[in-house]
Design goal:
This protein is an alpha/beta fold. It contains eleven helices and 17 strands. The strands form five sheets. Strands 1-2-5-8-9-10-13-14 form an eight-stranded parallel β-barrel.
Length: about 450
């Protein structure tokens, strides 16, 4: 699948299936439960094009609400609580039959400390056998999450790259997401070598890096680099939705344009360099985060802010990612795999809205512009923003653009977002005369036939 076509759904095998009434009890918490939901058409209905599995390698922790799997102990063994290798193969095969790519998390920065067969497996010197702070060839130092893997050593690189090749060959995965790859802990020569070797055997392999703050060397040539989780996008959106401060970010209107134009002015070389998200396993959901602000701690604000966050993620340049439960506006804290969902997704108004929105992203080229600089290519033009004049949003938290993916005027799309808590009037420069169709807003999503029932004769 082309990188620009990715709409990524992050899930934890246990949390995505355990306690969910549409999954048979014997398959809950297991690969087979994910397979059940794929075959039932869940992702086709939602509109996602790729599922990203949080770590599937063996870890010593029991499954539960807060068991994330980021304490790998055996890299080549799949987590026994999830099922057998053949059950993982069946999951991937079902996904491919449904047109879904499958990405798996690899944790190559650190390992489980309480049980790890690699610890002291090969000693660097005889005295290591008696030293508690040295683990042999595969380890060097510490991280906040466990013993640091020595990714600077060629022998260790060989092993970890072979792990990825093994999963590509044996399980037919489409790519990987790599946990915490910042150069302070992960050797980037290893990351470059990883990309070279995996692309040599599977040119279309999907490579995604959690790398915060984002570093430019992982872009490679832009189109063929690592799609990085965009920290700028996440933190800025959370600040805007909170109407205040989130960690180091404020809701200064001057930051808005950058995050919607694939953070090009901060680190990205190409739209392929960016994965945008407003929720992940590491972060509070939007509803939870908004609920920490007194004036916003009410059901209506939580739902509308959750919708606005998802809307922003789907229209921004770069690739969108959502975390399981976001399609229901679920309220849950960080590092949590459980969420509440109805047995029938169609019973949720939020899901009905979200799935139609996501499918707009999937269908329209104007919502997935790609390249090194769509402005220079004549495909993108700002029409609202704080840096423009008073008639086009000066000083206010609004952003808007015209997307022109081709010379065909029927493909032109206008995107407008307002993060103020009041209506903002602007002069709307559509650029093309004629009848326009409103496909989506915070309350409403429809589409032209055959995907929707929108009547072009209806008033905007």
């Amino acid at each position: 699948m082309l990188f620009r076509s990715l709409i990524i759904y992050e899930l934890h095998v246990h949390g995505f299936t355990f306690g969910h009434a549409d999954v048979p009890p014997e398959n809950q918490g297991r690969f087979a439960g994910v397979t059940d939901r794929i075959r039932a058409g869940y992702f086709d209905q939602l509109g996602a094009t790729a599922i990203y599995l949080m770590p599937v390698a063996e870890s010593p922790s029991p499954q539960g609400e807060h068991a994330m799997g980021y304490n790998t102990s055996v890299f080549t063994a799949v987590e026994r609580d999830f099922g057998s290798p053949d059950e993982l193969r069946a999951l991937v095969n079902a996904a491919h039959q449904a047109g879904l790519s499958v990405i798996a998390d690899q944790v190559f920065t650190h390992t489980a400390n309480d049980f790890n067969p690699l610890w002291k497996l090969i000693l660097n010197h005889p005295d290591e056998a008696e030293r508690d702070d040295e683990g042999g060839l595969y380890f060097s130092g510490k991280t906040p999450w466990g013993n640091r893997i020595a990714t600077e050593r060629p022998e260790v690189q060989n092993f970890l790259i072979d792990v990825c090749k093994y999963f590509l060959k044996e399980y037919h995965l489409d790519g990987f997401r790599y946990d915490f790859t910042h150069s302070s802990l992960m050797n980037h020569g290893f990351m470059q070598r990883m990309a070279d070797e995996l692309q040599a055997i599977k040119p279309e392999v999907i490579l995604i890096a959690e790398n915060m703050p984002n570093e430019q060397d992982l872009n490679r040539r832009g189109f063929d680099g690592y799609g990085q989780w965009c920290n700028n996008f996440h933190d800025t959106i959370k600040a805007l939705l909170r109407e205040g401060v989130f960690e180091a970010e404020t809701n200064d209107p001057r930051t808005i344009g950058s995050i919607f134009y694939f953070s090009k002015d901060s680190f990205a070389a190409h739209t392929n360099s960016v994965v945008n998200y407003c929720e992940s396993h590491d972060e509070n959901s939007v509803a939870f985060e908004v609920g920490t602000v007194g004036a916003l701690n009410n059901p209506a604000s939580k739902e509308r802010k959750s919708r606005l966050g998802l809307f922003a993620t789907m229209v921004a340049l770069g690739q969108p990612m959502i975390y399981m439960g976001a399609e229901f506006g679920a309220e849950r804290g960080r590092n949590t795999t459980y969420y509440t969902a109805p047995k029938n997704p169609n019973d949720s108004g939020f899901f009905a809205w979200a799935s139609r929105l996501i499918r707009l992203r999937r269908r329209y080229p104007g919502l997935k512009l790609h390249g090194y600089n769509p402005i220079a290519d004549g495909q993108f033009e700002w029409i609202a923003g704080t840096w423009l004049d008073d008639q086009h949003g000066a000083g206010r938290r609004v952003v808007g653009w015209r997307s022109m993916p081709s010379a065909n005027p029927l493909e032109t799309i206008i995107v407008l977002l307002n993060f103020e808590n009041y209506d903002v009037e602007i002069d709307l420069e559509l650029g093309i005369p004629g009848k326009w169709a409103r496909l989506a807003d915070i309350d409403f999503v429809n589409d032209l036939a055959p995907e929707g029932s929108y009547d072009p004769a209806s008033p905007i």
